[in-house]
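1st attempt posting a full record on here, be nice pls
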Amino acid sequence: MRQIPLGTKGTFTLRVQPEHLANRFKDAILPRVLATPVMILIMENAALNAIRPFLDAGESAVGTAVDVQHFAATPVDLDVCATAEVVNVEGKRVDFRVSASDGMEEIGSGTHQRIVIDLGPFNERLARKAAVGAA
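the predicted structure (as tokens):
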């Protein structure tokens, strides 16, 4: 991993589709609005996009913490754009300030953390775990 400058930003945009709505994604009793887990996914993708240029071959970054509020509803067919800004880097841990907007208003904000991993050893551990679980 190359040094990641504080203030580095990334974005990710998703057009809200019926499968992203709370009433389809979670439970039919819920309203036809963007599900909170999908908003978080958009924020996490923005964070990954922010640091992607600094990752070496064979590296990735997995999410380890999310602390966000979802404070405005978004209907189907609007584009939700998330922005993530690097606010701290300690070793392989990267902290972000994240926010999301649907073009009408800010719909959520908070913090997110990712850890840079070496995919080789990570995938080996995952395969061992899968083998034990399948036994």
